[in-house]
Design a protein that fits this description.
- By secondary structure, this protein is mainly α.
- The protein has a single domain, classed as Up-down Bundle (de novo design (two linked rop proteins)), CATH 1.20.1440.
- Helix content is 62%, strand content 0%.
- The protein is built from four helices and no strands.
- Helix 2 runs antiparallel to helix 3 and helix 3 packs antiparallel against helix 4.
- It is elongated, with a radius of gyration of 16 Å.
- The chain starts with 8 loop residues before the first helix and ends in a 28-residue tail after the last helix.
């Protein structure tokens, strides 16, 4: 049940976000090349990579797991952006815009994980995924609030 990840709006949006992050981090000091610059870029790149990797999974539950990895990378990216703001790297308005876009990726990812995860979770509401759940994967992935 592979998805065509290039057709997923969240993947497309994550790819645009990567470009924005790379352009933003070009102004970081050279001393950050192997520090914050590298970490920020790797975290942002991981968002789209996990969505793409998960799209090849054979079940909704596996795909939801990769969406959760992508979400974690979004949080890592947000934290790196907060560090950049604290160190006054880049324009404050640009950091705010990137954080706003990361917030949107966060919301969409959480919505999708909830759809695939909680609708297939144990009765207690835990995030444990029921391996017998059969949720169709064909309608939510283009949702952007």
């Amino acid at each position: 049940m592979a998805h065509r990840f290039r057709e997923l709006t969240i993947w497309q949006r994550a790819m645009q976000f990567i470009g924005d992050i790379y352009r933003f981090s070009q102004v970081f000091p050279p001393t950050e090349q192997y520090g914050l610059t590298s970490q920020l870029r790797r975290a942002a790149t991981s968002i789209a990579l996990n969505i793409a990797e998960g799209s090849g999974c054979s079940s909704s539950q596996e795909f939801a797991q990769f969406l959760s990895y992508s979400l974690r990378s979004t949080y890592e990216t947000m934290t790196a952006l907060e560090i950049a703001r604290m160190l006054q790297y880049g324009e404050k308005g640009r950091v705010n815009a990137l954080l706003a876009e990361a917030d949107q990726l966060d919301k969409v990812s959480q919505w999708e994980i909830q759809f695939y995860g909680l609708s297939c979770s144990a009765p207690s509401g835990r995030s444990t995924i029921d391996p017998n759940c059969k949720v169709p994967l064909n309608h939510v992935l283009t949702f952007i609030p």
